[in-house]
Amino acid sequence: MNNGMPQQTRIRIVFWLFLWGAMMSLHGQSPDAFSLSAEYTDVPLKDVLQSLETERGLRFSFQDADLEGIRVSCSFRAADWNWVEQRLLGAYGLQGRWLREGYVTVRRLAEGADREWRIPLHIVDPEGKGLSFAQIGLLGSRAGGVADEEGSMSLRLFSSVRDTLLVSNLGFEQQRLSLRDLLLSPDQVIRLTPLAVELGTIEIREYLTDGILASPDGRRLTLTPNASANVPGFVDQEVYRLAGLLPGITNQGETAGNLSIRGGSRDQNLILWDGIPVYSPGHYFGMISNFSPELIDKMQILRGQADAAFGGRVSGLINMETDREVVDHLQGGAGLSLLGVDGHLKVPLVAGSSDLHLAGRSSVDLLLTGPTYSSYRDGVLQSANLHEIFGGEETESFNFRELNGRLHWDIGRETDLTLSGFTQYDQFTYASTGTRQFTDALETDNHGLGLNLRQSVGKGESILLQAAFTRFENQGGNQYSARNTEISESRLSGIEEYSLRAEYERITPENGRFKVGLQGQQFAHTLELTGINTLVSDRERRAVNEGEAQAMAAFGSWAWNRPSSPLSVEVGLRAQYYAPTDELFFEPRLDGSYRVGKSWWLKAGFGETHQFPVELIDFNPESVGNSAALWVLADGEKFPVANGREVSLGFTGQPGSWFFDVELYYKRINGLSSTSLDIDQLDNVFVEITSRNQGLNALLKKRIGPWRSWVIYTLSKSEWEFPGRRRPPVPADNDRRHELQLMNSFSVGPWTASLGWRWHTGARFTRVLRVREEVVDDRVRARLDYGRLNAITLPAFHRLDFSLFYNWQPPDNSFRGQLGISFLNVYDQSNILHRQFFLSRRDPDRLNPSRFSLDIIDTMGLGFTPNIKLSISWR
After folding, report:
1. 845-862: per-residue pLDDT in tens?
2. Number of compact structural domains in the chain
3. Residue 610 parent element (H or E)
4. Which residues have CB under 8 Å from 836's CB, separation 6+?
5. Cα 155 vs. chain centroid, distance in angstroms?
6. What pLDDT shows up at residue 196?
7. Does residue 173 lie within any of the structural domains?
């Protein structure tokens, strides 16, 4: 008798329990436990998903139309679900979402929509050896990563499968490939090709941070504003302030556009926008950069010994180029910050061959009372000092606007044409009314138009034809009036330039780069300067100057570099003819580097340059307010042709994740022009100056994962001499003996942050020793006795700045958003940037019998300045 369950029944129950458990384990498996080893060759995607259902127990939900026509060729070896989903679905614009119990929904993403990617890859040389610390990034973005010492990495991005990746490493050609091609490649191995051309094309991926490239010797720098971390303390990508992060370049007076390169002044820098010369320092007295970063593809910066193709300035070169990539669909964006609004559009015209890019910015009246503008205003106007001196009711107005654009057309495979232009306007007025009245005004117009035609004429050969026109006008003045006193100054200055340029270039792996060309320029300028100070004299101080000039130049250069040779050399010569002086100037250029070991370079350079349009150095310590820049043309008499010579010597090294760049330089510039040293010098309004600049720039950078940290120290000495005058050399206005920058940037996921601290020796000023009283024309006049020019140093400047950004995208991927917040001068340090003096008449009394008073007017740096910006874009 069998009281228990029959054995056969028990076996059946155990079998069905086992089968049920197995099925549940399959249906209930998590993506973390999933692993696949399989190979597919030209298999319909629908069949692949059905096989995964049969063999792996998954359940896919999809629309047949989304999978139609997709055939898969790829292999997997113990691949996790994330990698399988990206290659099988993501590469074709699909996205799979793993739900509970092994259910997966598959949907097609909107065209160009972003999603998250995690891609393991390996970057190697042609022999398969891993490239240590190679760089890969999303073109036109800050996103990307750095390989480890073996050339391996796991790339994390939030982008569209259509986006393009840029891969680079020191000494190798940059490679562009689409994200889709990387996903569909058999092994996700990227092979880079060694460079075999000239020095200027070899680039280090990171000089300071993402988007800042450099040649091995560190002399040629290329900045990509849209791929670079923001400057600490700013929510907008200020293109001029980005340049100010580099060793040897400083933003004088906390401005954006007043750039000093190795002790030079802003007018000594050749600034080009698609080949159009730029004379304006920026908006709001140079505080805001005047070109929208959305249109700028790259900025080439040379801090000395510029290519012989460039001339007409005696310091550095900033060459901005707009994006040449033709968009295939409408892209755009807009932003609002506490300083103004901006927007840009990229419009396709002819599919695949032509498009139009436009960008604009403007101030907004409603923001003029906000904290950001108020801080800028206090610095520009010295408003606290003026209110204390003049009293009365204050009124002001300010607005700026700009529109920049470029039209590009690819005419066949070998020819492209670009038409570029900009129009920019600034207007400012300030008035204080009462018993003492003071007014200050400035208006500027800046316009430019350029045409670039590039034709490929053979393998490695091209011809560039370029035409450009630019005009910069500014006029302004200030006036103070009180009882029996008038102090006023009026300025009008305009300069325009027409330029034609033809250039032939040939690049070969064997012989390097050879370039020759011609350039013709036509200049015109107008200058009117009038002023009166009845405390000194009833006679008006007046200068009027206008004229035209022509210049012609022929240039040639040859650059040679081979990976097999440690030596790199670039030599050039520019022959420059200037019609007003009927002189031919020869400008030799020489630059070279020598590789020592694998990661170190010794470098040296020499260059000679001449400058024809110049901005006058302004000696007027009694000036209060903001003066219009005075541009003139050299005539060989009143205004000499400036001549600059510079020599440099240094070394650069990149051992592992460290980077060093140290350079010594000496620069002498003869023939600078300035206004008179003495306010009572009524007839001899202009004087000549010689400038001597010498210094050391040192950079130390370290990158650890997402952190980039660098230190820049500059030791410099800038002096002025006065030929024909019995004056010893004096410190220049921009003499800063010591300068230190500590910078950090961090990027992870949607967050980006930057933190920077700056310190430098205080600015120079001239002390007024006493105010003397003299009787002139039966009236008591004032005479100021000065100490040695620029002999006194103001207290040291220091400031801590911070910026933080968050990037996001809605679930439907319809646009991209960015929220940025910044803080300038976090601990609200009071920095004096500049010191001036204001002389006025007073009623004498028993305690102070003097008829005159002298007030100190200090231009203060920005205090604690917050800003916030919301940006929206689609592409």
Report:
1. 666 667 787 888 888 899
2. 2
3. strand 600-611
4. 621, 622, 623, 624, 765, 856, 857, 858, 859
5. 26
6. 41
7. no
